[in-house]
């Protein structure tokens, strides 16, 4: 089993440098895949109300027998934005997870047209004070949205989970995160596989280190200071994806991978995307 190193978040919590995505892992097979992932060393689990798998994640956590070592993430969906709505949403998530606490609670999408993400974040801060949430963060927030929640609540999110992969390295937003003390978390870190893993430049760099293309990509994320959360239903791939801390890419190699930049791959511009 791989030991995944941690970094310290702005609220003092030890946070894994790599976690496990669970989107599409549902039902008994989904639970089994998450149990396998925990057995393979993953300690950070990423879920959301909208993945409709909080029960599966909670069941996997109980089956693992190491609840206290795990950081369980879930996310407030757009339809639950608002102060009271978020408190109600958190109660629903806790009930479905069957856990006493959400370890990392994120706003899934800012939905700026609705304009209720500040009160949503305030509710999360209050849930944290009450011990129902350990760490508060956001997802898909722009620099302007981060500044606004910080100014209006006085609390800096510990994490911003954003689309990031070699086709979309997010240099500017990562620099903002660094200056504010926010940890970047990369969603779809393998670009949902797409053609990324067949890119010549990634193949060449992987060969130079005797690792797989996937491992080279995930090491690129961690060396850029982001926590990738690759999803895999396949135990052998879970092991491969977690085993990325035994080699270092050079500065030139990091830059060559970032050179694949082409922009967002999906319709996920936080200024316009609405997700309920
Ligand atoms: N906050 C947000 O808005 C969003 C958050 N997310 C989160 O990010 C997580 C990860 O993103 P996701 O979209 O799932 O995409 P990923 O980039 O993690 O890619 C997952 C795909 O890659 C395949 N794969 C995984 N490992 C390997 C490997 N070693 N070799 C070859 N193929 C591999 C998987 O196949 P297989 O399972 O068959 O092994 C699956 O098809 C999600 O599960 C979710 O938790 C995702 C999107 C948006
Ligand atoms: O997976 C998530 O967290 C999402 O936010 C979804 O929008 C995802 O990006 C998707 O593709 C849904 O079809």
UniProtKB/TrEMBL annotation:
One Pfam family in the UniProt entry: Aldo_ket_red
Q: Which CDD domains match?
A: AKR_AKR5D1_E1
Which InterPro entries would you find in this protein's record? AKR, Aldo/ket_reductase_CS, NAD(P)_OxRdtase_dom_sf, NADP_OxRdtase_dom
Cite the entry's keywords alphabetically.
NADP, Oxidoreductase
Domain NADP-dependent oxidoreductase per the UniProt entry, residue ranges: 18-260
Task: Write out the similarity annotation.
Answer: Belongs to the aldo/keto reductase family.
Tell me what this protein is called: Aldo/keto reductase
- Say which species the protein is native to: Microbacterium flavum
């Amino acid at each position: 089993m791989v030991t995944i190193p941690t970094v310290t978040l702005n609220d003092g919590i030890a946070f894994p440098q790599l976690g496990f995505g669970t989107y599409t892992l549902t039902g008994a097979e989904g639970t089994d895949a998450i149990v396998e992932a925990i057995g393979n060393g993953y300690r950070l689990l990423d879920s959301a109300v909208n993945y409709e798998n909080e029960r599966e994640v909670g069941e996997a956590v109980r089956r693992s027998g190491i609840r206290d070592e795990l950081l369980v993430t879930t996310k407030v969906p757009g339809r639950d934005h608002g102060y009271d709505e978020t408190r109600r949403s958190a109660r629903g998530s806790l009930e479905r997870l069957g856990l006493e606490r959400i370890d990392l609670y994120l706003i899934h999408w800012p939905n700026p047209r609705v304009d209720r993400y500040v009160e949503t974040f305030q509710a999360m801060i209050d849930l944290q004070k009450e011990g129902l949430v350990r760490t508060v963060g956001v997802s898909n927030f722009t620099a302007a949205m981060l500044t606004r929640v910080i100014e209006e609540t006085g609390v800096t999110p510990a994490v911003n989970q954003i689309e990031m992969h070699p086709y979309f390295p997010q240099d500017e937003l990562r620099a903002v995160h660094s200056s504010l003390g926010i940890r970047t978390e990369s969603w779809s870190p393998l670009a949902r596989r797409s053609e990324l893993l067949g890119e010549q430049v990634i193949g060449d760099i992987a060969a130079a280190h005797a690792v797989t293309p996937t491992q080279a990509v995930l090491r690129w994320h961690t060396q850029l200071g982001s926590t990738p959360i690759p999803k895999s239903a396949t135990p052998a791939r879970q092991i491969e994806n977690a085993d990325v801390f035994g080699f270092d890419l050079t500065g030139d190699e990091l830059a060559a991978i970032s050179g694949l930049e082409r922009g967002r791959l999906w319709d996920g511009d936080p200024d316009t995307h609405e997700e309920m």
